[in-house]
């Protein structure tokens, strides 16, 4: 599959541009600016949202470095897991988010590697989200085995408090960007309400005499899915497939 691309790529204008110019561009940012961008991992609206006030140039919808607020408590438990894979997943999460934020040193090293010197390495953000999700899966596995049950409630409370504090810190910036008050409240509620619902459910579940861990995790997964659906439903408006691939009767005979 890849061999034809290897042969054809050097003959393209894109390859010429990337190899002669883009490969030699300094890709990391000043440390303070890069660390500031990491806010979007936790607060996807930290620098505004396109269409909701005067968002900065290049700023679109929710940050693609954000994977859901309810994922953080699970990931905290994953870090406490006895599974040694947690270090691998933590490492690729740090690597992915660091390159996405253009942290000096890490970004410069990755961008100097063969092939990655002509790649748009910000897309390695998927490694950050994948690593975070994998840590969350390890945390969920521990809950299923009866470990860290009390710690999970504390992790939810800690996450909720951290997001509330983060919202207070970015509030002046959102105000300066003229984000409407209703929009500001909505983006915070989309994080806080699912966390609060998960915390109340978990407290209720802990107080029960008969506990079904699998059913509890299914409920929590449902809350996470509902959160992500509410946060992302307008990111890519969906058009029916027939708008792009109309049915052709001549093909039916084939």
Describe this structure in words.
This protein is mostly helical. Helix content is 62%, strand content 0%. The protein is built from 12 helices and no strands. Helix 5 (71-80) packs across helix 8 (125-144), helix 9 (149-176) runs antiparallel to helix 10 and helix 10 runs antiparallel to helix 11 (213-232).
Query: What amount of the residues lies in strands?
Result: under 5%
> Which overall shape is indicated by the principal axes computed on the Cα atoms?
globular
Judged by helices, strands and strand pairing, the structural class is mainly alpha
Q: List the helices and strands in order.
A: HHHHHHHHHHHH
Q: Mean of residue pLDDT?
A: 90
Write down the Rg. Answer: 22 Å
Largest sheet: none
The tally of helices reads 12
- Which spans have pLDDT < 50 for at least 5 consecutive residues? none
Strand segment count: 0
- C-alpha termini separation: 26 Å
Helix content: 55-70%
């Amino acid at each position: 599959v890849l061999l034809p691309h290897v042969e054809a790529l050097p003959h393209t204008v894109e390859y010429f541009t990337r190899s002669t110019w883009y490969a030699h561009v300094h890709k990391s940012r000043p440390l303070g600016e890069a660390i500031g961008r990491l806010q979007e991992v936790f607060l996807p609206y930290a620098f505004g949202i396109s269409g909701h006030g005067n968002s900065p140039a290049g700023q679109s919808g929710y940050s693609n470095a954000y994977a859901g607020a309810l994922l953080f408590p699970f990931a905290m438990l994953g870090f406490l897991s006895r599974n040694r894979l947690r270090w691998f997943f933590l490492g690729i999460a740090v690597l992915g988010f660091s390159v996405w934020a253009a942290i000096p040193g890490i970004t410069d090293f990755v961008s100097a590697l063969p092939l990655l010197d002509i790649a748009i390495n910000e897309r390695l953000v998927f490694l950050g989200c994948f690593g975070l999700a994998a840590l969350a899966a390890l945390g969920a596995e521990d809950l299923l085995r009866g470990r860290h049950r009390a710690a999970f409630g504390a992790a939810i409370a800690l996450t909720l408090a951290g997001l509330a504090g983060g919202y207070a810190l970015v509030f002046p910036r959102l105000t300066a960007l003229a984000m409407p008050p209703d929009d500001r409240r909505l983006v915070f509620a989309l994080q806080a309400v699912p966390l609060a619902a998960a915390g109340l459910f978990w407290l209720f579940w802990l107080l029960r005499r008969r506990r079904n861990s699998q059913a509890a995790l299914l409920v929590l997964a449902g809350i996470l899915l509902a959160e992500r659906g509410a946060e992302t439903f307008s990111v890519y408006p969906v058009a029916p497939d027939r708008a792009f691939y109309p049915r052709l009767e001549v093909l039916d005979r084939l």
